[in-house]
């Protein structure tokens, strides 16, 4: 392949969450296009195991801390081992901490640095200056994240928006077979959780962390149950707010209907069983799980936090409400429960729009960022500043 690229994808995550899955989707598509990819991750981490299962090339680093010199030296050694006179390698940092490792490891070497920003809060001044503003290209996952980067001083010409995506090849049902998949998934969960299979099930899949605001979800569910006592809510996920969320459900006396079902490795087993998807985030880079919910043909209620509005257009493919407003979140859910025609229409449009967030499209846009950064680098040959 004449224009084959060499890309090192850096991610220090200790779990396999949305950002890590996004990176794996990208590597898969770039591999298909003939590019040379290496996943640079922690040894024996969930990401390392997932990459190995997919037969992706890997390099493991300890990632002891953000500016870890051991990881820097190991990565620099791998870069120096590349064939002399070959292609300029691209260091694509998929997390904030790995952007620091990339910046240090590339010192004195011909490398192009691409930094990915997936969260919608302001980076520190030091991070903004050295990890983003001095990268050759910065990828924001939504317009909201791009705006934050620009306000942090990152030059506009360096920032491109590439929305998060799903891998449609991972859809576990074939065309025309979703109803059978749904019935099986719902039956399994009903038996496991002791729930009536014919009830209305709303639900969500999130990390139980502050910016996802699971307590807002609990408070909204309590109001929904008052109006619709035959419904249930399934919350899949784990995190530091798990016990606090469960405690709030007990305090509101809805623990029998609000079910915390823990981490689920196969999101579609949950999504396929639901009647409605809810995302209560107070902050959100984009919310790639929304695209999975769209792929499952679910009506969606979400907040307008961060980049969610890049995915959900109010009254078109879902309903949106302000963050941290549990009454509005409950009202939107009750509206969909009471209006099946509206719910079905929103779900159809959501399912149609899932193609806008496919992994081949994401890979094509990312390649444009790589190519632009490489062209600029070759013109200027500017070293790490």
What this model shows, in words?
The chain is of the alpha/beta class and 385 residues long. The model has no long low-confidence stretch (mean pLDDT 94). It starts with 5 loop residues before the first strand and ends in a 5-residue tail after the last helix. Helix 5 links the parallel strand 5 and strand 6 (137-140). It contains 14 helices and 13 strands. It folds into two domains: 6-165 and 358-380, Rossmann fold (3-Layer(aba) Sandwich); 168-356, Glycogen Phosphorylase B (Rossmann fold, 3-Layer(aba) Sandwich). The protein is elongated. The relative contact order is 0.12.
Question: Topology, pairings included?
Answer:
Elements: E1 6-10, H1 18-32, E2 36-41, H2 46-53, E3 58-60, H3 69-80, E4 90-93, H4 96-105, E5 112-117, H5 125-133, E6 137-140, H6 143-151, E7 159-161, H7 178-193, E8 200-205, H8 214-227, E9 231-236, H9 242-251, E10 258-262, H10 267-271, E11 276-279, H11 289-295, E12 300-303, E13 319-321, H12 326-338, H13 340-353, H14 359-380
Helix pairs in contact: 1-14, 3-4, 4-5, 8-9, 8-12, 11-13
The CATH class of the largest domain turns out to be Alpha Beta
Shape: elongated
Radius of gyration: 22 Å
By CATH's scheme, which homologous superfamily of the largest domain applies? Glycogen Phosphorylase B
Q: Label the CATH architecture of the largest domain.
A: 3-Layer(aba) Sandwich
Whole-number total of structural domains: 2
Succession of helices and strands: EHEHEHEHEHEHEHEHEHEHEHEEHHH
Q: Sheet bearing the most strands, described?
A: 7 strands, parallel
Overall average residue pLDDT: 94
Strands of the biggest beta sheet: in what spatial order?
Answer: 3-2-1-4-5-6-7
- Tell me the β content: 15-25%
DSSP summary: helix tally: 14
Total E-strand runs: 13
Indicate the percent of residues in helices.
Answer: 40-55%
Kindly report how far apart the N and C termini lie.
Answer: 32 Å
Low-confidence stretches: none
Return the structural class: alpha/beta
Within the CATH hierarchy, at the fold level, what is the topology of the largest domain?
A: Rossmann fold
């Amino acid at each position: 392949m004449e224009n084959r690229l060499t890309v090192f994808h850096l991610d220090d995550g200790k779990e396999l969450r949305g950002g890590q899955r996004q990176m794996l989707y990208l590597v898969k598509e770039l591999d298909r296009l003939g590019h040379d990819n290496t996943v640079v991750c922690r040894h024996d981490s969930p990401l390392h195991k997932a990459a190995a299962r997919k037969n992706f090339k890997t390099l493991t680093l300890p990632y002891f801390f953000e500016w870890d010199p051991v990881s820097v030296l190991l990565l620099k050694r791998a870069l120096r081992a590349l064939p002399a006179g070959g292609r300029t390698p691209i260091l694509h940092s998929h997390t904030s901490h790995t952007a620091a490792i990339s910046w240090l490891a590339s010192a004195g070497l011909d490398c192009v640095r691409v930094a990915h920003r997936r969260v919608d809060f302001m980076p520190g001044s030091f991070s903004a200056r050295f990890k983003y503003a001095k990268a050759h290209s910065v990828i924001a996952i939504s317009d909201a994240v791009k705006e934050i980067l620009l306000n942090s001083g990152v030059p506009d010409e360096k920032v491109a928006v590439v929305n998060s995506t799903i891998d449609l090849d991972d859809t576990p049902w074939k065309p025309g077979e979703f109803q059978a998949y749904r019935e099986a998934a719902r039956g399994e969960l009903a038996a496991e959780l002791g729930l009536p299979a014919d009830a209305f099930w709303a639900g969500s899949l999130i990390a139980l962390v502050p910016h996802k605001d699971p307590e807002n979800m609990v408070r909204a569910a309590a109001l929904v149950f008052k109006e619709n006592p035959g419904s249930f809510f399934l919350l899949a996920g784990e995190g530091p707010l798990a016990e606090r969320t469960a405690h709030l459900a007990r305090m509101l006396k809805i623990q029998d209907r609000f079910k915390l079902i823990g981490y689920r490795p196969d999101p579609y087993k949950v999504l396929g069983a639901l009647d409605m998807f809810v995302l209560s985030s107070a902050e959100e880079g984009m919310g790639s799980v929304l695209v999975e919910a769209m792929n499952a043909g679910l009506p969606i209620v979400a907040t307008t936090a961060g980049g969610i509005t890049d995915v959900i257009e109010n009254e078109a493919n879902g309903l949106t409400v302000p963050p941290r407003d549990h009454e509005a979140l409950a009202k939107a859910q009750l509206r969909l429960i009471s209006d099946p025609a509206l719910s079905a229409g929103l779900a159809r449009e959501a399912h149609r729009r899932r193609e806008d967030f496919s992994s081949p499209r994401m890979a094509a846009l990312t390649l444009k960022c790589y190519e632009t950064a490489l062209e600029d680098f070759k013109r200027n040959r500017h070293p790490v500043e």
